[in-house]
Amino acid sequence: MAEQIPYGITQNLLTILGSNLVHEIGLIYGVRGELRKLENTLSTVAAVLLDAEEQQESSHAVAVWVRRLKDVVYDADDLLDDFATEELRRKTDDRGRFAGQVSDFFSSSNHLAFRFKMGHRIKAIRERLDDVANDISKFNFIPRVISDVPVSKRWRETCSLVEKSHKIVGREENKKGIIELLIQSSSSQENLSMVVIVGMGGLGKTTLAQLVYNDQEVANYFGLKMWLCVSDDFDVGELLKNTLRSATNEDVGNLSLEELQKRLQKNLNGERYLLVLDDVWNEDKKKWGEFMTLLPEYENGSKILATTRSTRVASMMGIDSPYIVKGLKDDESWELFKSLAFKKGEEQMRPNLAVIGKEIVKMCKGVPLVIETIGRILYFKTQESHWLSIKNNENLVLLGDKNDILSVLRLSYDNLPIHLKQCFAYCALFPKDDIIRKKELVQLWMAQGYIQHSRENECLEDVGDEYFEGLLTRSFFQEVEQKHVNRGHCYKMHDLIHDLAQSIAKSEVIILTGDAKTIPKRIHHMSLFRPHQLPQDVIRKPIRTLFMEYYGDDHYKTKRFISSLKYSRAMKVRSNYRTVLASLVKLSHLRYLDLSYGYFESLPNAITTLNNLQTLKLVSCYNLKEWPRNMEKLINLRHLEIDKCDRLSYMPRGLGESTKLQTLPLFRVGSDSGRRRHRRMRIGGLNELKFLNDLRGKLIIEGLVHARSSEAEGAIFEGKQYLECLRLYWGWGGITEATKKSEEEEAVSVMESLQPHANLKEFFIQEYGGVRFPNWMMFDGLDLLLPNLVRIEMWFCSRIRVLPPFGQLPSLQYLQLWTLPAAEYMKDHSLSPKPFFPSLKTLKIYNMPNLKEWGIKNVVVKQAPPYSYLEDLQLELIRMELCLSLIRVSSSLKSLEIADVEDLISLPRGFDIFPPYKLSQSWLAKIWQVYQTRLAASHHLQS
After folding, report:
1. Are 313 and 151 in contact (CB under 8 A)?
2. For labelling alongside 131, which of 417, 481, 707, 835 has CA 20 to 30 A away?
3. How high is the pLDDT of residue 103?
């Protein structure tokens, strides 16, 4: 079996070896020459990796060579990380700050011992790599430039005819839908246009295209049909030759592009044609443009029908909404399987096999290729044991006499760019049907060193997002909807894609869901789920990733196991025992550490010695109430996720030293009493946020009632350009009648210092204690300060009298004001030429009984400007005059809810009170009572 090529780690090593850091290390430790030799040899080996990947498919000796190379590369990566980690440790003093030059930190004895030890290691690794490089000539490897990867030559030829033995089930609706797309726009007499069919390998895209191609309605509509299989390579000249050959059924000589184009124009002669391009992989927009330029265009409804596995290819063709093919339904899958695995009526005579067969069909997840392959395998198998062996098979892609399933799916992997191959294989670490979150996966890739930036200041997370999109658009992931999940987009891998990943990663990745006695020697990534005990030989394996959802009852063995993972880069551990947590501090190479859902009250102080740590997750650690000391040492921390840590009442001093921090969803301001009681905890203030200008996404600040303006002034939110959502929660604690006045002014001063960057999109304020909003919110040019703000919510701001001029905000779509009982009016908008709420779609006002004016003076007398896009209006506990005014000007309403509006006994003339409007029962009862009273009075007058 072929070995996975370590492209990512090899490239990462070359980047590190060429860096200034390694140059400095070489000078300090006296190993500059050895490092240079290592870099040169590794460059030589890296140049032949593409050829080695192809040759190992047919050569066991080459596969063994790749395995030897991987062992050396991993060891070299560990070696260089040891150097870098020691360098980082020595550069960091007790406060986590850089303190002078590297050489200042070396005591002669430790320096010499470390130098001696590392010198021997680097020499041994360099000699092993030399042995690997010496065999390059033995295998006649050809150097290639990795950036110029050709499309794989492992392709399959297709034609326009549907295979006679091919059973087609469940594609009639798809066929009709595509035919409609091909002929529906002909009345517009448009030029050549396209329909693109997209789906993962094995779903039957080619079969569907064949059904359409051979349909009688299509044959009648198009005067000429041509079929091209484009799998091999998108060579414009060859494609044009094949197009002409398909159109004329004649051999085409060595004609130039100009001659080919002329002959094609002549033979088509204005005829309406259909050109099918099956199995397209090309993502080069320039090549596609050249091909399209050479095709004749007639205003007669000619069409191109293309099939591909990638939405990137469809987008390159200019199609943003391709026709997505999905798997067969359950009943269709069973119908197809039954027709292939049983003779006619046999499933009724063998009910035991039918029961097993239905379980097998569920495993196929609606993919026709897999159903057909397994059905044909079982056709001559009548013993139940044969059927059970298929049902119990964990990897369906390896079934079939010629690995039919694997060979089709493997094409998708072979055509991946080099930098995505190792990233995809890593996904075998996740169990089948597991939810994959993009952000988490990118963080794990970063921890492994798989992500490389091409520009100096390029953000690794942004590059990782591009990597993920590259796999998503090539059908390696499927987006799924998850209710009650607010931690980013969720995805899954189709079971067959997961099987493909496992077939590529093989013994490097293992998932254990039960007890296992042995672990492969070269295992690098391990997931442990519900084993009763750890495998006996698991200690000191070269594991770089560990997901440990269950740890058993042997705490000592678990601690010993974790302590042995010296070179682990990523770890997810569900443990509540301090002995186990304490063992983590020895893993100095960790970049990713997830301790979510733990019941511990504090973390070991020594955890801050993990200077390489990039991601620390403490989600739903409900008992956590104390931070470790010296958090300032975590200078490489980029993501600190602390959602739902309810007992955590403060943030640590020194957090502001982690200037690379991007994720900080929650910041709790500690109280003065807490600071006095827990001086040893080193509580940090709002000024810890001062230099955290890379913060992204959402930031919630709680306990602002405890904040002081002197600290808030140092937070400087105007510089946080990547922050999209800011939530400010004051809280009620600490205010008494004696301190009320000073606290109100202090709240205003704090708020004055929290002016966000103009890029902010969502803004929430809750329980604000000030009597007025800060000057920047009341500024007449608020639209210039916050031009991108889309959503505003204000809750329980009980002392506010005047609202900011929200009507100016050009992008505001959602405004919710909830319980602002003292508010009387919105700042005057009457003299402003700016449009009033130009983008507002949703307006919700609740419990604002004193609100009289809404952006202009005398709202009752003077009608407010219209709201062009307002669709959803919810009004409760407000004045009748304001309620009527808002209803009158809302001409685009789709939803209206009214409740508890005093004195409101009717709606404006012509206003439809039927759905989708919702009117409270109490208000409707009041209207009915008034109606009956008036009706009775009318009858009395008539009599």
Report:
1. no
2. 417
3. 43
